[in-house]
Amino acid sequence: MKIRLANLCWEIVWILVVFGVICAVLLSRPDKNAQKAAQKAVEATRLALRQQGFKTDLADFDFSTSAELRAREAILRNAVANRNPNPFVDHPNLMEAVGTNSAIVVWKQNSLKRQYSSGPGNNNELNWDEFRDAINEHQPELDAACNAALSGPIRFNLNASGGNGILLPHLAMLKNLTQTFDSRAMLALHDGNRDAAWTNLLASTRLVTVWEPEPVEISHLVRFGDMKLVFNATWQALQADGWPDEQLARLQSEWESVDFFTNLPETVAFKRASDVAVCQRGGQEHLEPSPTLTDFLKEALRSPFFIWSELNHRWDRANYLRHGSYEDETNLFLFYRDRELELRNAVQASTWSQMRQLPGVTKALPFQSKYHSRMQAMLNVHAISMRFQREGSSILGRAAEAEARRRILIAAIALERYRGKHGSYPNTLTELAPEFLKNPPVDFMDGQPLRYRLTEDGHFVLYSVGLDCVDNGGQMPSPERQRIPDFKSRGFGAPPKGDLVWPLPAAAAKVEALRRKETRARELQNLREQEEESEREWNQSPLRQARVGKILATKWSPDAGNMSYQGRPANEDIHNGNVTGTNWLSLTELLTPKQIITGDEPENVTFEVPVSYDVITNRGGLTLLVDADPDDPATSDSGAKMQDCNRATNGDCLLVWHSIYDPPGQHAVQVQLFWMNEKRGEFIGKGPAISVVTSNLCQFSLASAHFDPETGATFRARLPEKNGQYTVELNTTNGTRLKTITGSTTNGVIKVHWDLMDDHGVRFTNDFFNSVFHSTLPDSGRSQTLKGP
C-alpha cells in the first residue's frame, strides 16, 4: 500500500513537471497580435488627447526659470541653508484660541508659549530674550530674503522630467521662511518697531501671493498651508492700531491679486504624464530569468505547490508586460482626462456649496487597475500619503478654505482702513463699498455675505461658515494641534466642525485663566508621569538585588588589548602618577573602587580610584555601575541613579554615589571606563565588583531631585515597611527653615507635595533648597534622619 501511494505521488509530481514545462514554453511565446493591438490603443489615445489640448508627456512641461528668478531663488535658499527645518526654540502659535471666538495677541504677552514643552517639569514658557537670540541668528541672510520676496515674482527652477520623483526642497524652505518672517514680525511688534514688523509681514505675505507653484499637488497644498500661517500673522499685526492707510491698501491689493483655483487642473495634467511615464518604464522591464530545469525539479520534488505558485506568478507578470501595462497606460490617459475635466469644471463654480455638488470634488476617485503591478502599488501609497497631506479634505476643499480666508483677510483690512478714516468700524460690511471694496464681501463657502458683528468693547467678529456650510455663530474649530487626531472622529473627507473666524482679541483675564488651567493640567500630567517612573524604579529593585551575587562571583578583567595613547598603554596613560609613582598598576587594579569614609554616609557613598582626573576627563570618563546586569551591559538599569565624578586633592578620581535614589541593602559596585585614544578609537571596560551595603531607609524617586518653579516640588520615597511616620524639613541652602511637613503612610510610600509657599505664606523663588527627612517605622522600631533631595 505504501509503495503504491509513493508511486502515485511521483506520478503526480511528474505530471506537474511536464505541465510546468509546457506552460513555460507557452510563456516564452508572446502573443504579438495582442501586444500590437494594445500598443496601438495607447498611441491612438495619446494622439486623441493631444488633439483635444491635453498634455500627455513629461516633455510637455517646462519648469525652468529666468536668470532673474534663479537669482531670487538663490537668495531665498541661502536664508535657510544648512539649517534645521525648525531652527528656533519654537515658532509661536499665532492663533491660540481662548474660548470659542477669541485668540491671544501673542506679541502683547510678557512671554511666549512653546508649542512643545521642554525642560524640567515640561516647562512651556519661552521668554522674549531667548526668542530674540534665536531669531536674530541669521539676520543678514533673512534681511536679504525679505528684500528678495519684495522685489518680484517667485518661481523655482525644476526638472520636470523627474515626474513623480521630482525634487521639491523649496517647499520646506518656503514654510520655514514664512514662519520666520511671521516670528520676526511678532518680535518687532513686541519691541515697538513698526517698520520692521511691516516689512516682515509683507515679505511673508508675498511668499504666498507672488509664488507661482509648479503644477504639483503637494506644492499647492503647501501654499494653502502657508496662507493660513500668514492669515494668523496678519490678524496679530492688525491688533496694533495706527497702521497707515497706504500700507493697509498695499496689503489689501496683494491679497486681491491672488487666484488659488485657476492652475489646479494643470496638477492633474502633470500627474497624468508622471504616472504614464512610470507605467511605460514598468512595461519596458523584462521578465525575470526562469529557474534552471535542475532547480525547477528540485523545488518541485521538495514542494509540488511551488510549480503552481511559480507558474502563476510568471504568467501574471508576463501577461502584464506584454499587454497589461499598455492597457494600464491607456486607462491612465482616460482616467486623468476625466479627473482634469472634473477639476476644470469645478474651478468655475462661484461657491463651495456649488462646487462640492460636482463629481470628484469631495471624494477623489483612485485609479484601479485590473492587474497587480508595482505601478498600482505606487499609486496606492501616493493616494494614502496625499490624504494625510490634505488633512482629510480634498485639494479643492483646501483651496476653498484658502479662498475663504483670503476674502476674510481682505474684508478685515478694509475694516481697519474704514476705522482709520471714520474712527470706528461700520455697522455692516456693505458700508465698505465702494470706497474700500468694489463690492460687499461674500463668503465663498455659501455665497452669502461674510458674517460680521460688532462687540460692545469696540471690536468685531468676522467669519466664514467653513467647509460644512453650517453657520456655527463664529465658533472657531478645534485647535490646529488636535486636527490630525480628529480624523478618528470625523473620518477622511468630512469637513471640520466650526467656522473660519477672524476672532476677537482675548481679554487679559481670560488669557491668565487659560494659563492657570494649562499649568494645572501640566502639573497633573507631570505627577502621573513621575508616579509611573517611580513605580518602574521601585519594581526594578528586587531584580537588581537578585543579581548581586552573580555579579560579585564574576571575575571581571578589563582588557585594553593594544589600546594605547601616543605609544603608551592605556593603564600608563590614565594612572595618577602623583599617587602610584613608578609603580605601574594594571587596568584591573586601576578600576578597582576603594570606598572611603567622608561623613556623608548613608546619603552619599564615595569611592576613590587611582586614575588621573585631569587625564580621564580629557580622554573619556568613569562611571559607577551598581548592580549592572552582567548579561546585558547595554541595559538602562546599569548605573547608580545619581552620581558625580570629582577631583581629589591628590588628583585621583572620586566617584560619589547618591545612594538615596537606590534601594537599601547589599550592592555590587563596579567602575566602568570609557576611554578614547588619539585616533578616536573607543574602549569601554568594567573593573572588578566590590560589595557595598547601604542603610538608607528611604529610596527616593529620581524625579524628587528636581522641582518646577511654577507648580512646586513633589517628593516620592518608598520605605522598607508599610507603616511609617515622617517629618520633612525644607530649608534654604544657608539653613533657614522654609516649611515643615508631617505625615504617615500605610502602604510604605511617601508622597509629599510642596507648593513652594513657606510657613509665613511667602513663595520660595530661588533655584535650590535643601530637605531633611525624619522617618520612623513603628513595626520594627527603626528610625532615621536623612538629607533628602
Describe the structure.
This protein is an alpha+beta fold and 789 residues long. Residues 22-28 and 480-493 have low confidence and may be disordered. The strands form 8 sheets. Strands 11-12-15-14 form a 4-stranded antiparallel beta sheet, with no helix packed on it. The protein is built from 22 helices and 25 strands. It folds into 4 domains: 11-53 and 266-388, no CATH class; 64-258, no CATH class; 547-694, Immunoglobulin-like (Sandwich); 699-787, Immunoglobulin-like, CATH 2.60.40. The protein starts with a helix and ends with a strand. Helix 6 runs antiparallel to helix 7 (194-209).
Characteristic terms for this protein:
Immunoglobulin-like, four-stranded antiparallel β-sheet, 789 residues, alpha+beta, 25 strands, globular, 43% helix
Topology (elements, then pairings):
Elements: H1 2-27, H2 32-51, H3 67-78, E1 97-98, E2 102-103, E3 112-118, E4 123-126, H4 128-135, H5 139-151, H6 170-191, H7 194-209, H8 217-237, H9 245-256, H10 264-283, H11 293-302, H12 305-346, H13 352-355, H14 374-389, H15 395-422, E5 451-454, E6 460-464, H16 487-490, E7 500-502, E8 504-505, H17 508-546, H18 548-553, E9 564-565, E10 568-569, H19 570-574, H20 577-580, H21 587-590, E11 594-596, E12 604-609, H22 613-619, E13 620-626, E14 643-647, E15 653-658, E16 665-676, E17 682-686, E18 690-694, E19 699-700, E20 713-718, E21 724-731, E22 737-745, E23 749-754, E24 770-777, E25 782-787
Parallel strand pairs: 2-8
Antiparallel strand pairs: 1-2, 3-4, 5-6, 6-7, 9-10, 11-12, 12-15, 13-16, 14-15, 16-17, 16-18, 19-20, 20-23, 21-22, 21-24, 24-25
